[in-house]
Amino acid sequence: MARRGLVYICNPNNPTGTIVSLDEFEKFMSHIPLTATVLIDEAYFHFVEDSSYGTVIPWIGRFPNLIVARTFSKVYGMAGMRLGYAISSEQNIRTMRSCKLWSSTNVAVLDAAIASLGDQAHVLDQRNKNIQTRRWLYSELDRDHRQYIPSHANS
User: Fold this and answer.
1) Which of 51, 68, 99, 125 has the highest count of CB atoms within 10 angstroms of its CB?
2) In a domain, 149, yes or no
């Protein structure tokens, strides 16, 4: 009997901002049966500076059970508009399409997404502002001898 299931990993995690490195993720995937779907939420991937981290999108061909979800909510500044997308194998996308809500967005949201994709300078600026603010916060926490978990997300 085939083992089935769904594994959800938010990487970077929300709300902790912790990450799973590519090496850790590869070890994990080597133990997951192909009958189990692995959904990786990369909503905060723009904000990671750690060199051990990386997107797993290039691994989709290697792991046909892998789905990567992203959103325009974070670095693109469209939090209230709730627009995201998934990247996976053709078979997974075809299966997911049967569950799609066709009335889940509107033309204003789609126009905003297209505009944000055309303004990569803004995306880079938002990323840099977030990273600078995070570094400032850590320096203030260090100065006050406060303990904290370093975040790789937008907080």
Assistant:
1) 68
2) no
Q: pLDDT tens-digit profile of 30-87?
A: 999 989 999 999 999 999 999 999 999 999 999 999 999 999 888 888 888 888 999 9
Handedness of CA 113, 48, 89, 9 (dihedral sign): negative
Report the chain's terminal Cα–Cα distance, integer Å: 43
Q: Is the pLDDT of residue 108 over 50?
A: yes
3-state percent breakdown (helix, strand, coil) of the chain, nearest 5: 40, 15, 45
How many separate domains does the chain show? Answer: 1
151, part of any domain: no
pLDDT, mean of residues 12-28: 95
Asked if 42 and 72 count as a contact pair (C-beta separation under 8 A), the reply is no
Q: What is the pTM of this model?
A: 0.88
Nearest CA to 155 out of 134, 132, 140, 129 is that of 134
